[in-house]
Design a protein that fits this description.
single chain; 284 residues; alpha+beta; six-stranded mixed sheet; four-stranded antiparallel sheet; 9 helices; 30% helix; 26% strand
């Protein structure tokens, strides 16, 4: 099988905590968070086009082409490098949309990384991360390709070595608009910055939190209801700006046992934590 015929993964992420530390003059929020890659993935395939166009085989429902992150990533890479080739992108979507799992950002990162490889453009990981930031604050994380402690708007990344873990992730039947959550007047924006060592202490003490969670829980009762159910099985937290919530387990069997108790009206899945992105080798 040639490289052009392969299926390329775009894994999801969880935020193990998310503290909002301030707001910049340009409106962006500064934050601290820890990203954990998990083994739930979208899949992308790329087919070369001789006419130089960038197209999607199946546009995502409700997403205008000019807003599609895969298309934007491919066009950005062409513009940045002057590459004349075209590509058709086929996306098999498994990561819930609007759930705080980073699916769109991950799809964009896989598009950048794989097309850089297939087109033999030779951009280094750092260069791809700079391009990725133009597409969204979470996209550099997936190009970086490792679990990470993040600062700034999420683009200042320090690799984290995390223990093996499994997660029960619940998917409330709502989509949460990220911009509206960050714009909420009741959002706390004055979290005191912590050090990475404090993050690891916090993992043990369960002292960390997601500052967006109270805002989303109040505005979306379904999120609060799913959190309340998960809290019966341990520490539960929202990822990103929601709507998905999760609990961490030390064994896969424990995570699956909790999943087996999920009420029929709730939807969820078990995912394992990754040590690094499966495409990390492409940018080494």
């Amino acid at each position: 099988m040639s490289d052009w015929e392969q299926a390329w993964p775009a894994p999801a992420k969880l935020n193990l905590f998310l503290h909002v530390t301030g707001r910049r003059a340009d409106g962006y929020h500064t934050l601290q968070t820890a990203f954990r890659l998990i083994d739930l993935s979208d899949t992308l395939r790329f087919s070369a086009r001789a006419d130089g166009n960038v197209t999607l085989q199946r546009p995502l429902a409700g997403v205008p082409p000019e807003q599609d992150l895969c298309l934007r990533a491919a066009v950005l890479l062409k513009q940045a490098t002057g590459h004349q080739g075209g590509v058709q992108i086929e996306l098999d979507k498994r990561i819930p949309i609007g759930g705080g799992l980073g699916g769109g950002s991950s799809d964009a990162a896989t598009t950048l990384v794989v097309l850089n490889y297939l087109w033999r453009l030779g951009l280094k990981r750092g260069e791809l991360q700079q391009l990725a930031l133009k597409l969204g604050a979470d996209v550099p994380l997936f190009v970086f390709g490792e679990n990470a402690f993040a600062e700034g708007v999420g683009e200042q990344l320090t690799p984290l070595v995390l223990p093996a873990a499994w997660y029960l992730v619940l998917v409330p039947p709502v989509r949460v608009p990220t911009a509206a959550v960050f714009a909420a007047p009741e959002l706390t924006r004055e979290a005191k910055p912590i050090r990475i060592t404090a993050f690891f202490d916090g993992l043990k003490q369960r002292a960390l939190r997601n500052d967006l969670e109270p805002v989303v829980s109040k505005r979306y009762p379904e999120v609060a209801r799913h959190l309340a159910w998960l809290q019966q099985h341990g520490e539960a937290r929202m990822t990103g700006s929601g709507a998905c919530v999760y609990a961490e387990f030390f064994t896969a069997s424990a995570a699956h046992a909790a999943h087996a108790q999920l009420p029929r009206a709730m939807r969820g899945f078990v995912a394992g934590g990754l040590e690094r992105h499966p495409l990390h080798r492409l940018t080494e």
